[in-house]
């Protein structure tokens, strides 16, 4: 797929104090990209457009080079013990994305250049965990692989975790440019997961991301480079013909992946489609005519993090999804582990 390149780049003053910030400034000076030096508070009002529908696509073409402030890392269950960010938001444009809620008013991309501070903070959290094996998720707030050709931050992070005996990194992506990662000294300390879905979901809702074939090919390369491999099947949706399409998905995955030697069992994480009232409001504004099924009368309420509630499938429908998708996996990947279904 075509690599992301922003239309405009904002540099916060603090970013230019770090080596990576200086490198990125020189990088964009040689590109046909608008460069603006300003503070983060000014970014939203400087993005072109007046309505939400006008501003959103321009925001998705906007990159802010900044630093990560604060040291507290959020818990990231069931994926990992903690989460941290190299980037916030994503070049992809998935209609259902939970960031429609979490980053509703800041849909532009941010990348953090104070890697040394981020790494020191990770070490501190390991020490606070009595140096027990601690897991960290790096793609909860954005997809770092989508910007890796610009920043190189994910490569540095993977090699950093490769030196840590008591920590493991978890990455998930919908992108496919994994070549910069294949020769790294990762020491199998990074589990690389690919977000996969049926063709209907990818084609209708996952805009500006790698297609299914590209993701499966990238997963094969990652496994061949010795990374522990996993897949997130999310969001699983019910629609006319959904069972046949998910069966096709796992048949295709078996053809390409089952023959790859993996040092650890392949893992699967299963997440049903859900949405919040706030997300629905933004989705309708940003994607008029969306095919997403957000009929509250067919859903059940479930409380989530930070006191928000979301609409998930009914207990009966969720149970059917879990049983069906799990059976597809166990029949084709009998050695695989299903980490969770939510």
In CATH, the architecture of the largest domain is Alpha-Beta Horseshoe
Q: What is CATH's topology name of the largest domain?
A: pyruvate-formate lyase- activating enzyme
CATH C-level label of the largest domain: Alpha Beta
Following the backbone from N to C, one meets helices and strands in this order, namely EHEHHEEEEEHEHEHHEEHEHEHEHEEHE
Biggest β-sheet: strands ordered side by side in the sheet? 4-5-9-10-11-13-14-17
Secondary-structure class = alpha/beta
Distance between the termini: 30 Å
Number of helices: 12
Give the CA-based shape: globular
Strand content: 15-25%
How many β-strand stretches?
A: 17
The value of Rg in angstroms is: 20 Å
Task: Write a brief caption for the model.
This protein is 35% helix and 22% strand. By secondary structure, the chain is an alpha/beta fold.
Give an overview in words.
The chain has helices at about 20-30, 45, 50-60, 100, 115-130, 150, 155-160, 200-205, 210-225, 240-255, 275-285, 315-330, and strands at about 10, 35, 60-65, 75, 80-85, 85-90, 95, 110, 135, 165-175, 190-195, 205, 230-235, 265-270, 300-305, 310-315, 335-340. The two termini are about 30 Å apart. It is an alpha/beta fold. The protein contains 12 helices and 17 strands. Helix 10 runs parallel beside helix 12. The radius of gyration is 20 Å and the shape is globular. The protein has an 8-stranded mixed sheet. A 5-stranded mixed sheet has the order 2-1-3-8-6, covered by helices on one side. A two-stranded antiparallel ribbon has the order 7-12. It has 2 domains: about 5-65, 3-Layer(aba) Sandwich (Rossmann fold); about 70-340, pyruvate-formate lyase- activating enzyme.
């Amino acid at each position: 797929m075509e690599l992301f390149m922003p239309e405009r780049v904002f540099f916060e003053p603090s970013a230019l104090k770090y080596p990576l910030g200086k490198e990125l400034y020189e990088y964009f000076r040689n590109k046909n990209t608008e460069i603006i030096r300003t503070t983060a508070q000014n970014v939203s009002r400087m993005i072109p457009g007046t309505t939400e529908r006008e501003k959103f696509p321009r925001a998705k073409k906007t990159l802010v080079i900044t630093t990560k402030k604060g040291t507290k890392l959020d818990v990231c269950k069931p994926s990992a013990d903690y989460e941290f960010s190299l980037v916030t938001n994503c070049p992809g444009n998935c209609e259902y994305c939970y960031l429609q809620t979490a980053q509703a008013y800041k849909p532009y991309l941010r990348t953090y250049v104070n890697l040394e501070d981020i790494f020191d903070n990770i070490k501190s959290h390991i020490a606070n965990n009595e140096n027990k094996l601690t897991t960290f998720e790096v793609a909860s707030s954005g997809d770092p692989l989508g910007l890796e050709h610009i920043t190189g931050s994910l490569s540095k992070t993977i090699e950093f975790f490769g030196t840590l005996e008591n920590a493991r990194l978890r990455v998930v992506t919908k992108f496919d440019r994994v070549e910069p990662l294949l020769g790294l000294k990762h020491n199998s300390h990074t589990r690389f997961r690919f977000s996969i879905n049926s063709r209907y979901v990818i084609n209708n809702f996952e805009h500006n991301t790698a297609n299914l074939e590209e993701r499966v090919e990238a997963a094969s390369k990652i496994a061949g480079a010795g990374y522990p491999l996993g897949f997130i099947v999310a969001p699983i949706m019910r629609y006319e013909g959904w069972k046949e399409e998910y069966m096709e998905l796992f048949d295709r995955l078996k053809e390409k992946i089952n023959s790859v030697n993996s040092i650890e069992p392949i893992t699967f994480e299963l997440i049903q489609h859900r949405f919040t009232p706030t997300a629905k409001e933004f989705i309708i504004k940003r994607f008029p005519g969306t095919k997403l099924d957000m009929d509250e009368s067919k859903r059940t309420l479930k409380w989530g993090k930070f006191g928000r509630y979301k609409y998930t499938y009914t207990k009966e429908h969720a149970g059917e999804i879990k049983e069906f998708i799990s059976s597809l996996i166990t029949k084709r990947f009998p050695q695989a582990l299903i980490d969770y279904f939510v």
